[in-house]
Amino acid sequence: MGATVSLNEASRPLDVLGIGFGPSNLALAIALREAGREGGPDLACRFLERQDGFVWHGNMLLDGSRMQISFLKDLVSMRDPTSPYSFLNYLHVHGRLHDFINLRTFYPTRREFNDYLAWVAGHFSDRCDYGEEVVALEPDVQDGRVHRLRVRARNRAGRERAWLARNVVIGVGATPRIPDAFTGALTDARVIHSSTYLAATETLARAGRVAVIGFGQSAAEIFLDLHARGVAVDLIARSPAMRPADSSPFVNQIFDPAYTDYHYHRPAGERDHILREFQNTNYAVVDPELIETVYDLFYQQKVERVDRHRLLPGHEVREVRLISGADGVQLDLLSLDDGERRIRRYGGVVLATGYHRQQHHRLLEPLTPWLAGAWQTGEGVRRDYRLATTDACTAGVFLQGCCEPTHGLSDTLLSVLPIRAREITAALAAPYSGAGAPERRTAAHAF
């Protein structure tokens, strides 16, 4: 049977509909609520989340893995350190503030930070529908103009619902980046991306030797986790070596909110140069302490004269062949140093190959006639994260976490969440502050 659609044409349109309820839109939900309590418009908002409940990178919540940024860069503190939704207040409410202070660290475990985020999300359960996957974002065209957008979503049972909204905020996160050689191989349970790692650990633990593809933070963490589970691992990457992440104080200033403004107002060519110049702060790099741990592990192997784990830098996977039975994932490796081809067989492969930020492209395609600027290449985004539109469109589309070309390297990270949420909230509230503003809404319905 096909999906059923729930219709209720009498329903009021929302002021704001958020697609996705990860940290970005969670920070926005806080900013909207606090702005309303401080005398701003009480905007009717709703969030739709594909997952059945809140979890942040659940398959990478490895034992002992820590955050790479300070807990002060939580959902609110950079905007309002007195907010009840801060990480410090989370510790206080759970009776762990003094204990955390005794740890003498700015970097909580990733598992604890996920628990903090889930705790905050619990305060907004009345504004989020979980288990709703958005399948379409469409213009609601009236007399050739678009004042509202229609968002259609499907739940686990296949039932479809639709919402009308004056503004849509897209915060859908990233999708796995899959090397060309592995296209189609993910249909085999023995080949996974790091985004599903923890769910596959039982299978990998029985796999014999496992190949981990990549030399970034996730690759290093997965390698050490598999080592702790007694699994033999080959670390394979095109790069000649693991590179340390540059988190020195002056370099870290590129993640300050003020730098977003600086980056945005540079010419396009200069913005591209900045992104390339500071790639080593975020992409294909590893925390220095973690690199030392990995290096020490390989050194101890030499001391003990064992060959349990192998390091294969400067190698590219050219072809993947799937064979039934044990060690049935065959990789054809090309040495980038001498051009030699090597065939290696594994019981499992983990692709720690990063992510794309392109999910919003599919959603925005139906709106193309009403969008101004080359949004497909990252342009056409205003400073307040709203996509530029034609004069025939007054509905707002805002992007969170996919504006790196225009807004800088911090855009995909947690660093600017509170400030970005404040800026988007101000843009959403602006039409309600003058004479003739639309009636304020407090109710939200699907139709």
Automatic annotation (TrEMBL):
Pathway: Siderophore biosynthesis. Keywords: FAD, Flavoprotein, Monooxygenase, NADP, Oxidoreductase. It comes from the Bacteria. Its cofactor is FAD. InterPro entries: FAD/NAD-bd_sf, Lys/Orn_oxygenase. It comes from Nitrospirillum viridazoti CBAmc. This is Ornithine monooxygenase. GO terms for biological process: intracellular iron ion homeostasis. GO terms for molecular function: monooxygenase activity. The lineage of its organism: Bacteria, Pseudomonadati, Pseudomonadota, Alphaproteobacteria, Rhodospirillales. Belongs to the lysine N(6)-hydroxylase/L-ornithine N(5)-oxygenase family.
